[in-house]
Every structure is written in structure tokens, then in C-alpha cells.
Design brief:
The protein is mainly alpha-helical. The protein has seven helices and two strands.
């Protein structure tokens, strides 16, 4: 397994922006990616004339967490709780079967990471001359995350991140 981990605060904000963009496309009749039977639609789209703020979306999910809901979506927050997700996989598969990389490191060291992937997979190295390593799926956000929200999210993830670092034996700059 190759697992790429992203700063959970950035991942949360990015996911919110993705859903916001989908909502805007949906409102214009352009989005084919919206599942009207899905929980994202039910919580974030249905009956709304505007897309909820990041803070409203966080509150929706916090309510689900407080209720100990088994509903996994929306998961702006919970998808960033990497420790709990990895522990489930590690209980089934040997940790040696996992190659875990941090996304910022990957973006800054693509060729090195690809060499390491190839070695991990036991395949021939990638031909660097044939690789298109330009960033894809990059988009600008309409604004930045509020500092109060960033602070809240950093506190929300703090203990989970510490457990992740202990599990992996590495500390990321999150």
C-alpha cells in the first residue's frame, strides 16, 4: 500500500473548497459529480441557496461526532484522523506492506519519491525523461482559512497527530 498523508488542516480546507466548487457547478447545472442520494448532498447541498461556510460544515460534522454517528460522510474532519484509519489497516496487514509519505515532501521531491516507490514495489525505476511531473488538479481558493478556524483545527488534530507520529516513528510539520 502506498499512503500519502497531508496536513489534516489543509486537507479539511481543501475538501471544503472542493465541495463548495461542486455546489457552485451544481447550482449552474454543470456538475455531473454530485450524487443526489449521497450524504454530502444531503448535508451540504439539499435545500440550500448558498454553500455552508467551513465553520458551518465543521459544526455539522462535530454534531455527528458527538452523536457517535456511524455515518462516515461528510468527513471533512474525520478523514484527517489518520492514526485511527491506519491502525485498522495495520491490524489486518503487516506494516511492512505500507509505504507512507507526507504530501509536501512528495511534491518537493517527486523523483526521489518515485524511485523509492519503485524500490518498495520491486519494479524498475521510472524513466524520469518520460515523466510529466507538473502539478495537476491545482486550483485557487476564493479566500484563506480564518485564523480562528485554523487554530481550532490544529487543536482538534493535535492529540491524533501525536498518536500518528508515535505510530509511524516520524513527526511532520503540522
Amino acid at each position: 500500500f502506498i499512503v500519502m498523508l497531508r496536513d489534516p488542516v489543509s486537507r479539511c480546507f481543501s475538501a471544503w473548497n472542493m465541495y463548495k466548487n461542486m455546489f457552485e457547478q451544481y447550482e449552474k447545472g454543470l456538475s455531473l459529480a454530485v450524487n443526489k442520494d449521497g450524504l454530502i448532498f444531503q448535508y451540504f447541498f439539499k435545500g440550500r441557496t448558498y454553500f455552508p461556510t467551513l465553520e458551518e460544515c465543521i459544526d455539522i460534522e462535530l454534531d455527528l461526532i458527538r452523536q457517535k454517528s456511524q455515518i462516515m460522510e461528510p468527513a471533512l474532519l474525520r478523514r484527517g484522523l489518520y492514526h485511527d484509519q491506519l491502525v485498522k489497516y495495520f491490524s489486518i496487514f503487516s506494516t511492512e506492506r505500507f509505504f507512507i509519505i507526507e504530501s509536501d515532501y512528495f511534491r518537493s521531491n517527486i523523483c526521489d519519491c518515485l524511485d523509492r516507490f519503485a524500490n518498495f514495489l520491486g519494479i524498475l525505476p521510472f524513466n524520469r525523461n518520460r515523466l510529466d511531473i507538473q502539478n495537476k488538479n491545482v486550483r485557487k481558493y476564493d479566500g484563506d482559512i480564518l485564523e480562528s478556524t485554523r487554530s481550532f483545527l490544529n487543536k482538534f488534530y493535535r492529540d491524533a497527530n501525536e498518536k500518528l507520529y508515535a505510530l509511524l516513528g516520524v513527526k511532520y510539520d503540522w
